Structures are given as structure tokens and as C-alpha cells.
Amino acid sequence: MKKTDDETLVAAMRKLARDIRSDDGIAQAAIREAAERIHDQSMALRVVATWARCDGSSPSPRHKAMKDIAEHCERALVRKQVRTK
Questions:
Q1: Does residue 9 contact residue 36 with C-beta atoms inside 8 Å?
Q2: C-beta of residue 11 within 8 angstroms of C-beta of residue 18
Q3: Structural domain of residue 77, as residue ranges?
Q4: Residue 44 lies in a domain
């Protein structure tokens, strides 16, 4: 069985969380949280993979990509902290 890429899986789970109906809302919340966790972990892995490819020399497109991804992950963590308060 071919595995779905993370972006497609996250998009499908977010749509499912919007469309599914349950009396207490637990199913929607669980699916939405799972989608966000997969998204956050995928972004974190991109940071690690990008970092591993960088050799520390002069700024390059890889360095910019790594910085952009790291900033995205940081924003995701802040959003997660705000939601749990």
C-alpha cells in the first residue's frame, strides 16, 4: 500500500474533522488534534533534514528554507500553547 504524503493526510483529516458529526464533539477534536500533530511533526522533521544538509558555510537557499521552517514550527508551538491555556 502506498503511503499518503503528510500534506495530503493533514488536509484530509482537517476536512474530516469539519465534516464528521458526533454528539459530544470528541471525534472532531481528536481528528483535528491528530492532524495538527502530524503537521507539526512533519515540519519539525523538515527542519532536522534541512539542518543536516547545511554545512554551515555562507548563507544559501537551504539556510533560508531552514530558517523559514524553524519560524513556522515556532509559531505552531506558540499556537498550541495558546490553545491549551
A1: no
A2: no
A3: 6-84
A4: yes
- pLDDT bin (cut points 50, 70, 90) of residue 20 is very high
Number of domains present in the structure of the chain: 1
Has residue 1 been placed in a domain? no
pLDDT tens digits, one per residue of 48-64: 777 666 555 556 676 77
Alpha-carbon gap, residue 3 to 82, rounded angstroms: 32
Please check whether residue 17 lies inside any domain of the structure. Answer: yes
Rounded to whole angstroms, how far apart are CA atoms 51 and 71? 14
Which grid coordinates belong to 41?
511533526
pTM over 0.85? The answer is no
The CB-side HSE value for 53 (13 A sphere, CA atoms) comes to: 13
